[in-house]
Design a protein that fits this description.
This protein is of the alpha/beta class and 306 residues long. Helices cover 36% and strands 20% of the residues. It contains 10 helices and 12 strands. A hairpin with a 2-residue loop joins strand 3 and strand 4. The protein binds zinc ion.
């Protein structure tokens, strides 16, 4: 097994890998400076300009929920190895409404986003995911993940209490089963892990389809929306914009072009991983930690074709 495939398998199968927080919550402080106030473990925020769209953050993960007069639509339970995240999520919803949670919709099958949903199931929520997510979850057989009751292929529209939510599969990217959730009236999307806001792609982009990924971002850009709720907080907790999505697409195009040159010069993997720098993106989160891994992924993709 090649080094890349080994890393990929570990990434796909190890629960601890997926449970690692993606963003460091506590930056080291110079000793002379006053300590920054600790970031609370969780927060619930109503999205500005809406009266019913909320973001629930627990640690470094985000989930969107929508409150309607006929019930609540929740999304990723974000409860891997931390059941308190899910009970807190439900308690936070109950602070806003007495309405029952009718749906829980999975963004994609990675455990750090979707594990821990049983308390929602016990309340009677129906679970929805892309059909490939259900297939993968049935193969992986993990007790802490609720298997979806219903699946989506290319698109499904949910209407509840006057709110319309589209579930759209824009192709394979960071996983082969990502659903983009779009609120057409509010012009908001919830897009997890494949369009990070001013941040590099995760580690060596395991479990991914780099070329189709670029196409999927183009499809997202073609949808009508103004604001994007990401799966992990962006800088200053701001939401993403189409400019952010375009920047991610450009980063991937520029990095793959650099790696293509490195492949032609026989520099993949090690030399390319050391030599290629992308200074335009040095201010993005995780640039130092994950650039080499991103290069490794493109070396593999361009040499082996997967
Ligand atoms: Zn993921």
């Amino acid at each position: 097994m090649s080094r890349f495939l080994f890393a990929l398998a570990c990434g796909a199968l190890s629960a601890t890998a997926w449970s690692m927080p993606v963003y460091s919550q506590t930056a080291p402080q110079p000793s002379a400076a006053p300590a920054a106030p600790a970031r609370p473990a969780f927060a619930t925020t109503k999205v500005e300009g809406t009266d019913n769209v909320y973001i629930f953050r627990y640690g470094g993960h985000l989930s969107m929920f929508i409150v309607t007069p006929k019930g609540v639509i929740a999304t990723d339970p974000i409860g891997l190895a931390r059941p308190q995240a899910v009970t807190t999520y439900i308690a936070e919803i109950k602070k806003v409404t007495d309405q029952p949670v009718k749906y829980v919709i999975y963004s994609h099958h990675h455990f750090d986003h979707i594990a821990g949903g049983k308390p929602f199931k016990d309340l009677g929520a129906k679970f929805i995911a892309h059909k490939r997510a259900k297939e993968r979850l049935l193969e992986l057989k993990r007790d802490e993940v609720v298997i979806p009751d219903q699946t989506v292929d290319k698109k499904r529209t949910i209407t509840l209490g006057g709110t319309t939510l589209e579930l759209i599969h824009v192709g394979r990217n960071h996983s082969d089963n990502t659903l983009v959730m779009r609120l057409p009236k509010e012009k908001i999307i919830f897009a997890v892990d494949f369009i990070p806001v001013q941040a590099l792609q995760w580690r060596n982009m395991p479990d991914s389809w780099p070329d189709e990924w670029e196409e999927s971002i183009k499809k997202v850009l073609a949808l009508e929306w103004d604001r994007m709720i990401p799966g992990h907080p962006g800088p200053g907790d701001r939401l993403g914009t189409k400019d952010d999505a375009r920047a991610v697409l450009t980063y991937m195009q520029e990095l793959s072009a650099e790696v293509k040159k490195a492949v032609a010069e026989g520099k993949c993997y090690e030399t390319a991983m050391k030599e290629i720098k992308m200074p335009k993106y040095a201010s993005w989160a995780n640039y130092e930690q994950w650039l080499a891994g991103n290069i490794e992924r493109y070396c593999h993709h361009l040499r082996v074709g997967i």
